[in-house]
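Batch manifest, entry 17 of 40.
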Amino acid sequence: MLARPGLPDFEYIKAESSQDAFDWIKEKGDDLKLLMGGTDLFIQMRDKGEGPGYLLDIKDLPGMQEITYDKEQGIKIGAA
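Output type: structure tokens
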């Protein structure tokens, strides 16, 4: 993917499942960053002029945007 001016080039990947995300993380290692919103990450990439080779979008995976409450277990908030 060609990034906007000021951002280094990177490959955008959208995880299709949790297992898919784990597989990408295992394969790409430190050259991959997880993407939920990206505001802070894109600013860091722009300001430093460098970044990961891969951005893995996980915000649409099940549970990432959910908030649930249970009297016994308390509140659970998804990562997004």
